[in-house]
Structures are given as C-alpha cells and as structure tokens.
Design brief:
The chain has 153 residues and is of the alpha+beta class. Helices cover 27% and strands 33% of the residues. The relative contact order is 0.27.
Length: 153
C-alpha cells in the first residue's frame, strides 16, 4: 500500500496539479515551484496568460527506493502501465529515462492543444472544478503550496 501511495505522491510520474476556473485576458507569466521529499524531487513550471494556464511542465526525479524497487527493470515493469497511458494524447509530451538508481521523467502539457478533460482523467491528476472552464494559475499555486511546493526564483 505504501508503494502505491509513494507512486501517487510522485503524481504517478505525472502531476497535473491543477484547479479549474473560468479565466480570460493576455498577460503572460511563468512561475516555477519545487518540492523534494523521501527520494522524490518534482519541479512544476506553469506558463499562464493572466490567470489561465496555457502550458505546464512537470520534471520529476524519483529514486527507485521511493518506488519500492531496486533495479531499472523493476521500475520499468512497475511504471509501464502508467507510461502507456500517457502515449498518443494531443498536447501532451512524455519523456522518461531509467537510470541506475532513479527515473527521470518530464511531462509537458500544452493546454492550447490538449483536451483538459482527457488530461483530467489521467492517473495522478488532481483537480477541483470543471476542466472545460480552464486552469487557474492562482488556484493551482494555492494547491501546490498547500502540498509543500515552494517557488523557485
């Protein structure tokens, strides 16, 4: 059970830590947040036009011990179903590299191309509200800060 929790905590290698709300306007802003805990390091970068997130990048480094495995092969086997789920989704790019002692994963979501509802249905996604209404940068920041993420200058 703890292994499953740790995998979920890592966003099951994909954190779309977003909250949805209606938004508008055109002032672009990029913010980056990071957290590190129990062998898992996650960096989230949001690009928004006013309060509407238009792009999100999640970069994770997860030590095998945090997944409850000891080898690259065990990690690949454990994560294979999740990796498969992230293939062939418009607006989503998924890269994963298995190293000797950790997995490095990068997920980029371009919300101008992606179907937010489809992203919302992926394992590891966290939401509040209706994905069709857009992703609020302010509410996303509130959520990730409540989970221990800190802004990177």
């Amino acid at each position: 059970m703890e292994k499953r929790f740790l995998v979920r905590m890592a966003g099951l290698l994909f954190i779309v830590v977003t909250m949805f709300t209606l938004v508008a306007c055109n002032s672009e802003e990029t913010v980056t947040y990071q957290t590190e805990e129990q062998g898992i390091s996650i960096t989230l970068t949001y690009t928004a036009e006013d309060d509407k997130v238009v792009k999100q990048v999640s970069e994770s480094e997860i030590e095998y011990r945090a997944l409850g495995v000891t080898t690259k092969e065990e990690a690949e086997e454990l994560l294979a179903p999740l990796v498969e789920d992230y293939q062939n989704i418009d607006g989503l790019t998924h890269e994963i590299e298995y190293q000797d002692d950790k997995v490095i994963e990068k997920v980029t979501v371009d919300y101008n191309e992606a179907d937010a509802q489809e992203i919302a249905e992926l394992e590891g996604s966290m939401f509040e509200g209706d994905p069709s209404e857009g992703i609020s940068l302010e509410k996303s920041i509130e959520l990730i800060e409540s989970q221990g993420f800190e802004e990177v200058e």
